[in-house]
Amino acid sequence: MDNLNHYRTLIKELLIEQTKYPYAYDNIQFETVFDTQADRYLLMILGRDYENRRVHGCLIHIDIIDNQLWIQRDGTEHGIATDLIAAGIPTENIVLGFHHSVY
User: Fold this and answer.
1) Is the pLDDT score of 26 beyond 90?
2) What is the structure's pLDDT at 68?
3) 3-state secondary structure the chain
4) Fewest beta carbons within 10 Å, which of 57, 84, 99, 102?
5) Distance of alpha carbon 50 from its chain centroid, rounded?
6) Hey, what domains does the chain have and what are their CATH numbers?
7) Residue 7 has pLDDT above 80, yes or no
8) What is the CA radius of gyration of the chain?
9) Dihedral sign, CA of 74, 9, 32, 22?
10) How many CA atoms lie within 13 A of 43 on its CB side?
């Protein structure tokens, strides 16, 4: 259970940290969504682009499934998995869910 609480806290901290960096467009804001009951964590973007078009989407989506961190979406340049590894999460506990499985 300690791993689960550690993972929850770490993911929240990393997603909040991402909100401190400005987005490429001035009118885009970040919004964090934390569902600790379903262990689903999202970093959303919301606003208007440089042509005043509506922008709404998911930048990062991480689920905790069977004590593993499933990265369902990663729209960052550096990769959120890099931050998780740097924070001490073993690579075998990180699953890149957005990659196709090899059969």
Assistant:
1) no
2) 96
3) CHHHHHHHHHHHHHHHHHCCCCCCCCCEEEEEEEECCCCEEEEEEEEECCCCCEEEEEEEEEEEECCEEEEEEECCCCCHHHHHHHCCCCHHHEEECCCCCCC
4) 102
5) 24
6) 2-96 (3.30.310.110)
7) yes
8) 14
9) negative
10) 24
